[in-house]
Write a structure and sequence with these properties.
The chain is α+β, with helices and mostly antiparallel strands and 136 residues long. The chain is built from 4 helices and 6 strands; from the N terminus they run H-H-E-E-H-E-E-E-E-H. It is globular and about 45 Å long.
Length: 136
């Protein structure tokens, strides 16, 4: 499917798949250059360079397996779309999986007929540090 024909939700799903595959090149095509990213730890990046630095650090720290969406709602207008979502995720670190649910919001803007992610933030409703610590 061409990016021009993809819905805002399909762009978000493609982002999660690219993230899971650690495919920064595909992520770059899905996001605007002025993307704002808020990580689960509360770190903020205000442009693609900062965003790519943060997610590269995430790639090097742990693996992520996203599960299908548990729910999503959207507010879509002709040139912008806000997606609110919740999904299960498995975090892999030190050969151990921890399953949690994450919630997030993603703002997409349509420019020249193509949706681009311009803001993505999500949070884990428990301590992120405890999720990534070694099990005893």
């Amino acid at each position: 499917m061409e990016r021009k024909d993809m819905s805002a939700m399909e762009i978000l799903e493609a982002y999660f798949e690219a993230y899971r595959n650690r495919d920064l090149e595909t992520i770059a095509t899905l996001c605007g250059g002025d993307i704002t990213y808020v990580s689960p730890e509360g770190l903020v990046a205000e442009d693609f360079e900062g965003f790519s630095r943060l997610i590269r650090a995430e790639f090097n720290s742990f693996g992520v397996l996203y599960e299908p969406l548990l729910w999503q709602s959207s507010i879509e207008k002709s040139s912008e779309c806000l997606l609110l979502w919740k999904r299960g995720v498995k975090l892999a670190r030190n050969a151990a999986f921890r399953r949690v649910e994450i919630q997030g919001s993603t703002l997409l803007i349509k420019s020249k007929g193509i949706w681009k992610i311009v803001c993505i933030q999500y949070f884990v409703p428990v301590s992120f540090k405890s999720l990534l610590s070694k099990k005893k």
